[in-house]
Batch of 2 targets.
Target 1
Amino acid sequence: MKILVCISKTPDTTAKIAFTDNNTKFDTGGVQWIINPYDEWYALVRAIELKEADPSAVIHLITVGAADAEPIIRKALALGGDEAIRVNADNHDSYYIASQIAEVAKQGGYDLIFTGKETIDYNGSSIGGMVSELLGLPYVSLAAKFELAGNKATITREIEGGEEVNEVELPVLVSCQKGMAEQRIPNMKGIMGARTKPLKVVEPVAVDTLTSVVGFGLPPAKAGVKLVAPDNVEELVRLLHEEVKAI
Amino acid sequence: MAARTDLFTSPDYFNVDELLTEEHKMVRESVRNYVKKEISPIIEDYAQRAEFPLQIVRQLGELGCFGPTVPEQYGGGGLDYISYGLMMQELERGDSGVRSTASVQGSLVMFPIYAYGSEEQKMKYLPKLASGEWLGCFGLTEPNHGSDPSSMLTTIRDAGDHVILNGAKMWISNAPFSQVAVVWAKNEQGEIQGVILERGMEGFTTPTTHGKWSLRASATGELVFDNVKVPKENILPGVKGLKGPLSCLTKARYGIAWGAVGAAMDCYDTALRYSKEREQFGKPIGGFQLQQKKLAEMLTEITKAQLLNWRLGVLMNEGKVTPQQVSMAKRNACEIATNIARDARQMLGGMGITGEYPVMRHMMNLESVITYEGTHDIHLLITGMDVTGFNAFK
Ligand SMILES: Cc1cc2nc3c(=O)[nH]c(=O)nc-3n(C[C@H](O)[C@H](O)[C@H](O)COP(=O)(O)OP(=O)(O)OC[C@H]3O[C@@H](n4cnc5c(N)ncnc54)[C@H](O)[C@@H]3O)c2cc1C
């Protein structure tokens, strides 16, 4: 079984968010990069679990990004990917990225393609759907559970107020979310092993960029927090009435 | 007591991170995440109860914290010394006792077997110690011989295909839970030799040391040898004399230099956060000059020690380090860490004496760290002798 896991780099959740170039670009100065948590904790770790159950499985990783994405690729290799492909392009258009992934996937003949349900920075949620369309594969989104028996996958999706269980034959593309697996910490063996695992850099194919960002804006700054002693109900009522004007 | 969420962020005032490789940072991140997940939530309770969290032995083995610099063929990590240092820094950021467990296993048990053991000994012991299946301890200190181990009284006597071991060791970390002990004893010629003991050998016991106010989450004990028959194949063939145990101590002291800075970083980070949240006289206490002085001086010392450690690591990697340089770094790190822990504790006021924050635990732990592996005085005498050429030990 060949599994392709799509990973991308996102700013650490504690990163300070600011913009440059007239609010059209994210300011990457001083930002720590991590693997997008949905890609890492759920997609990649579930793929690793499948490989642990079936040692003949191989896991390829793909990222569309510039050379500064390589540290997160090495980390994903340390966690348990077998080899990685980086498409050397810095582009945030979903169609462009999906097309690059589809191109690599076509050549790889994968049985299973995992993505995270979204990235925690741009929150596009569109790569999975686009790649499946470009490859003509079935697509199951927002998977919280993934079981495999032979060629048949049983996938539990979260839906409003409940869950939905799907059955699908491989090959399939699945976008993963919480519940699929649990975060793992790469151990020293993994980190050492990642040194020698192949990381192939390929140039992008020519594809149109369909969207561009014209501006970002920050949410309004949060007002200060006021702490009220638990026994001071009067003060709480006064604040809710006079300041918050909620009652 | 419910543990507070571990919000640690690491101070790096001089961008020392830029001196590290991506792999170093990955090692550090892994161990930091491990500490946040498995150590911080439980350690205060274990320390309060003076109980050793035995589960960490397997966990540290799985993570690769035992013998990270031992070659991979023996189950080690094959990592460099900066990785090893960062690992110790992060473990001690959690608790000095946890770091001690790893230091002893890696530098004091696996290292002598790797450096001075026979191929059979290496194959028999190293993989099981690396994985955490076995825990090891290191017996050098005796009830009446601490700073002066060359006067030790523990002996081995030749008895044909085995030797007979007699004597006692004291203050031995990991002893109560160890399957394996590397013990230093004198032969008939008065030469110090290392022997590998296994739990269960007749006449070998490991009574626990109770009543410690420091390293409470690390198990300490005695090793008592009453005519223990030790097969000759358990003697480390590669070394005779004090340089055997001392070379192990150099490795472990190197780890302590990094580890103590880790504890200092945790104290600083805790005090800094507290100083921004705690208000007195209508403003955060961090706004008062006296508290700022403490924080500024803490960060200055941490930064100096981080750079010293990094340089020491480079020298270690290049095989150029001297034991005297390691002594200086160990001594300095322990000194700044104990001072920082005390200042941080005071900055937290009454809260500082509780287990709600990690500071008092670090402060008490560091009293062991500044004592073991050569006391503060002894390391000063090592530097003194190195620069003057005069021996002031005796
Ligand atoms: C928690 C803990 C864990 C330990 N773990 C281990 C272990 O795993 N294995 C092991 O072998 N040992 C271990 N030790 C022992 C430790 O290494 C010794 O305690 C240390 O070397 C000091 O020896 P001592 O306690 O006998 O003190 P002493 O040597 O009696 O020293 C007492 C005081 O005299 C000073 N002093 C001694 N000689 C001189 C001198 N020449 N000039 C000036 N001052 C001097 C010392 O600096 C100290 O202040 C551990 C100790 C502790 C507390």
Target 2
Amino acid sequence: MKKNVLEFDRSRYDFRADVKETFRAKHGISEEVVRYISKDKEEPEWMLQKRLQALALFQGMKMPAWGADLSKLNLDELSYYVKASDVENASSWDEVPAEIKKTFEKLGIPEAERKILGGSGAQFESAVVYHNLKKEIEAQGVIFENMDVALQKHPELVQKYFMTKCVPIGYHKFAALHASVWSGGTFIYVPEGVRVTLPLQAYFRMNAQGMGQFEHTLIVAEKNSQITYIEACSAPRYSKNSLHAGCVEIYVGEGARVRYVSIENWSHNTYNLNTKLAIVEKDGIIEWINGNLGSGVTMLYPSSILKGEGARADFLGIAFAAPGQNQDTGSKVYHVAPRTSSTIKSKSISKDGGVTTYRGLVKISKRAPGCKSNVQCDALMIGKGSKSNTIPYIQVANNTAEVAHEATVGKIGDEEIFYLMSRGITKEDAIQMIVSGFIEPIAKELPLEYAVELNKLIQLEMEGSVG
Amino acid sequence: MSASRRAETRSVSCEAAPKTKMISEKIVQELSEARKEPEWLMQMRVEAFHKFQQAPLPSFKHGLHIILQPEFDFERVKLKKSTETTPNLNEFRDKFATLPEKDKFFYLNLALAKIGLARARTGERISIELDRKEQFCHTLIIAEPNSQVSIAESVSGDEEYKSNFVEIFAARDAIVNFASIQNTDSKNYVSGKYASIKEDAKVNWFDATIGGGFVKGSVVSLLDGKNAETKNYGLFLGKKEQQFDLYSASVHNAEGTKSDILMKGVLKDKAKGLYRGLVKIDANARKADGYQKEEVLLLGEEAEADAIPNLEINNEEVRCTHGASVGNISSGKLFYLMSRGLSKEDATKIIVEGFFEFLLNKAGVVGMKKSIMENLR
């Protein structure tokens, strides 16, 4: 059955029975699977070669010996290519765990949206809004496409930037895995001098992208351009597949500014091993806003390479670990050019046995005089058995640098609760207020609807934690 | 033959007549015999020697990019024998050499070290000065309930390789103060200092690292008893091509325990300083309070500083804070002093002195101040 790419992509929206493929990728990864994915997407030869090269690298690399426990992750049991018409969308609403359904209800998420978030929906049509936005920005020369489509429509751009200088295919084992089986994602190209004022959101067409296991996000912001991209979905997303290994590459051109917002809330059966990296040229700014609420195990360290003089990186992160969750996150900044600066602010909440780890790196190289970096980690411990680790690496090879790191770990102070209760607030409300205050610096950077959702979600998680 | 003679004349500082020989099991046995050691100790030493041979060299790789590359060639280690009789350790057999982190360096030390014993009986107060000229030292300090032990250690020497291990057992209500200045000319110096601190006892460390080509130093407090306390203060002063790999840790194993780590360092020229700190709070250590701070002044244009101040908190009812900063002297401070007529060097010196002053006062080692300040040049 020969079909063109656009038709194929439609299937992800439409869930039409007649496009249902007979092939279902076998469990485990092999050259056959990789070749199939590439063929199915009718990719150019260089992409297939890249995938195969990455596969060889993946097979030769060892599992990381540090960080969260990955021993239960069985890479041979996973399906690496799930077509829209197969498992993900075909799973019925009944299969979605009751707990997640309950959360949807409490969050007041519309029926249709719930089904998509549950991985069982067929279509969520906010397409009108999306298309209008798209028309407007396309007039400015901005490209905002599904990664698969972009590869067909703009092969030279994709070839130039896709897993080349930013995240090379051999960056680490899961980057190599991603490179060999990637599918879907977002491609954004902002031409020189163009400032996109409205944030672009993957949310608008979330069934088309951003829901994959191995989605690839590539943002290229040319000189003096500006863009905000939001890949936020604070309601839990259920997926049958237990591994999420996405990749985000961001090129921030001279004087450009990119703000990347991501709230991830995968269901608790998921290993979230994501790779995010930005290269920032002269006077460019990258802003990371990163939230990790879900997944059983997260290992995610958005990184910035400050390559041009005066470049800046700001990272704002929040991690929430409920019982059984291990959030191992942080940020890395490489100061390789003079007078570059960075700030990292990380907040974590461990509740009732949840484990959070801040793991980060600030590296100031010899060739980079006048750099400044400030790292601040705050951890809040709630309930028995919670764990919190802070592992910041600071490496300074230039004596004109100023680097400071600060961290605090503690529970909610009895005095704070007492103070609020003396004002007539119940203990439960007092705790929630304090927690909301704790995450405020992150919430206020989010668009309103996400901030509200994030707050609600944390409140839900906090329910019954008095005692 | 001539080589060994040269070594003999160089190491005049050693008490016993020095002889240089490669290390072997036979030598370990002979040494133990000459020191009139009991059978169990000799056996322990021989076993340690075997473990030394089997153990891999620690990697000195901390995290992704933080790597030190010392040159260790144990073949080149020349042994200076000392045959002083070993004190009677029978009573402390269960305590001797039980420190938690055992690596290649520890085993070599255990096989060969001159063993020292300091014991303060219940209620007793003792103070000891230790002049470390020995190549391999292992000191056991027993502070019985309610006793008080003060130790001033100075480490010197010029060996290819030198190591020094200290174990402190502070029983209930005991107080141990251990202050050390290390200013050896040794090429490689490895030290490990550990304290097990019981209920209401206190162990206060002060550890100054000044000499040594490559220095690996650990100071670890195990807060094993309720309300035990530790202060772990240290400084380092790196010059030329010195490389330091320093580690301090507070391990809270019991309720109401308190720890305070403060490490200050100055790195000049091409010196490289890696500092790791750890505050670990066990699930049972409720109401624990941990503090950790590190400050480094990078004065040398080619100096490098790495810091990994870790927190590992397994219990929610705690308060734990840490901070680290790396930077140069602010130009504002220099300018202020220079506008008062001071040269840049003098201004720098005053600021560095001030940088350490607070720590030295806090650690209560005013007596050591002079010799440390001398090293600031």
